[in-house]
Amino acid sequence: MLKDSRVFSSFSVDDLDKAKAFYQEILELEVVDNPMGLIEIHFPNNNNIMVYPKPNHIPATFTILNFNITNIESIVEGLTARGVVFEKYDEEYIKTDEKGISHGNGPTVAWFKDPAGNIFAVMEE
Fold this sequence. Notes:
By secondary structure, the protein is of the alpha/beta class. The chain has one domain (9-124): 2,3-Dihydroxybiphenyl 1,2-Dioxygenase, domain 1 (Roll). It contains two helices and eight strands, in the order βαββββαβββ. It has helices at residues 16-26, 72-81, and strands spanning 9-13, 30-34, 38-42, 49-53, 63-69, 101-102, 109-113, 119-124. The strands form two sheets. A four-stranded mixed β-sheet has the order 1-4-3-2, with helices on one face. A four-stranded mixed β-sheet has the order 5-8-7-6. Strand 2 (30-34) and strand 3 form a beta hairpin. Pfam families: Glyoxalase. This is VOC family protein. Residues 5-125 form the VOC domain.
C-alpha cells in the first residue's frame, strides 16, 4: 500500500534558529527554510529531513540521525575543532575512547548532540 511512497523523516528542536546555525555552520549541511515555518536538511537523492520547532521539545534518548562516513578519526577531529562535543560512554555494552569513538562493538561510531539535545552519530562504513 505504501511501498511506492516518497518518505522522509522529521524531528523537533526547541530553537529553530540555533539548530539551523548548527547544521549549516558546524555540520556544513544544506539547510533550506520551509514556508510552513520549519527547516529542511537536504541530502543527495532527495532524501530530506524536516526539522520543526516544538516549545515543549524533549530530546530522544536514542540516535535520531546517522551519517555514514569513511574516515571517522578525521571527521571527529574536524567536528571537535568546530566545538562539537562527542559523547563518552563507559557502559557494559558500549565504550568509547577519549575522543568519543566506539571501536569493536559493531561499527566504529561516535555520537554527539545538536543544540536541542538530539543525538546524532557518525558511523564509519
